[in-house]
Specification:
Blueprint lengths: L4 H4 L5 H9 L3 E4 L2 H14 L3 E7 L15 E8 L2 E7 L6 H8 L2 H14 L3 E8 L6 H14 L7 E8 L6 H21 L7 E4 L5 H10 L2 E4 L8 H10 L5 E5 L12 E3 L4 H13 L2 H17 L2 H18 L11
Parallel strand pairs: 1-4, 5-6, 5-8, 6-7, 8-9, 9-10
Antiparallel strand pairs: 2-3, 3-4
Length: about 325
């Protein structure tokens, strides 16, 4: 990802970063918005000229969400040379995930999870501890859900992984403490002897178990305040293989512009968060399948192999057409 120019330009070493990128023949970013953020930052600091703009590729939604862009810069000129820019959203490996989900051991784990939780709606939220991951906002929303809709108490479970971040960072310790306190507060208020509202895991879950959890979950809830892309969303979709399920996805994740059929939500708005989880819980099976099929097609068509092929293809094209620089590209 690349931040907006007014944020990026706070950095003391902003010129050094921009100059180093302008020395490249090809600069790649996850999505068109990050391309435009880089272009804006570069033009604010250096005499960079726009050479070419194009409509965004079909893989990206051009409007309707926070990070959408209808057009994207593809070529810049700086100090007599061309700098190509493009969007390369990293993909996942749907084929491998399908294999994992169909392993007998994973199928057995899926059965165990479903037997343990019965017919309850299962919501999964997976990620590491980070103050921008939206865990606090999600937990407060879940608490409001149980207060607003008491009929759901005992019938919905939130399974949350919040893997501890690197030791020694106070801001992450504070975020971890807030998550644990909120989970304890909600469980203490609403759980019963036979039902635990939230299950929290703070250590890494084995990949087999994580795939079983994705496959079993009725809803994946991914609410970051800011996230460059987010592969958990794509892994959840791949695990379901186009079958029923609902993805609730923050529109401030880069993957939101690839997955407009998710239930897109604004984690800065309590009202919007409440509406989004209601939509997910009440969505008819037919609509679930329609949305998941479209998202599965998207993550399958642009998987990790296509991502790599795209980058190498563009890099090779640039290598053929780019002349040698005529002078020092870094201003004195």
């Amino acid at each position: 990802p690349f931040p907006a120019a007014d944020v990026f330009n706070i950095l003391h070493w902003r010129e050094a970063i921009v100059d180093s990128l302008l020395c490249c023949d090809l600069c790649g970013f996850h999505i068109p918005r990050y391309v435009e953020n880089f272009v804006s930052a570069a033009r604010s600091l250096r005499d960079v000229k726009l050479v070419e703009r194009k409509p965004v590729p079909e893989a990206f939604t051009p409007f309707g969400t926070a990070l959408a862009e209808p057009d994207m810069t593809t070529k810049l000129e700086y100090m007599g040379r061309t700098v190509n820019v493009d969007a390369f959203p990293v993909g996942t490996n749907p084929g491998y995930i399908h294999e994992m989900v169909n392993k007998p051991s994973v199928q057995q784990r899926i059965t165990e999870i479903r037997d343990d939780l019965g017919d309850n709606k299962i919501i999964v939220s997976a990620g590491r501890v980070d103050y921008v991951k939206g865990a606090k906002e999600m937990l407060l929303c879940f608490e409001r859900l149980l207060e607003r809709r008491p009929e759901l108490r005992g019938k919905v479970n939130l399974i949350m992984t919040a893997v501890k971040a690197a030791a020694g960072m106070r801001v992450y310790k504070t975020a971890q403490s807030e998550i644990e306190q909120l989970v304890g507060q909600i469980n203490g208020k609403y759980s019963t002897l036979t039902w635990n509202a939230i299950q929290l895991f703070t250590e890494p879950i084995p990949f087999d178990d994580l795939m079983a959890l994705y496959k079993t979950a009725d809803i994946a809830w991914i609410p970051p305040l800011r996230d460059g892309l987010n592969l958990v969303a794509k892994e959840y979709i791949a695990a379901h293989g186009g079958e029923n399920g609902v993805l609730v996805l923050s529109e401030f994740t880069g993957s939101a512009v690839e997955l407009p059929d998710a239930v897109l939500t604004n984690p800065y708005s309590d009202k919007n968060m409440d509406e989004s989880i209601d939509v997910a819980l009440d969505m008819p099976l037919g609509e679930q399948k329609r949305r998941m099929e479209k998202m599965h097609n998207a993550v399958t068509q642009y998987d990790v192999q296509q991502w790599a092929n795209h980058m190498f293809r563009e890099a090779n094209a640039v290598a053929v057409t780019s002349p040698e620089p005529e002078k020092d590209l870094v201003p004195a």
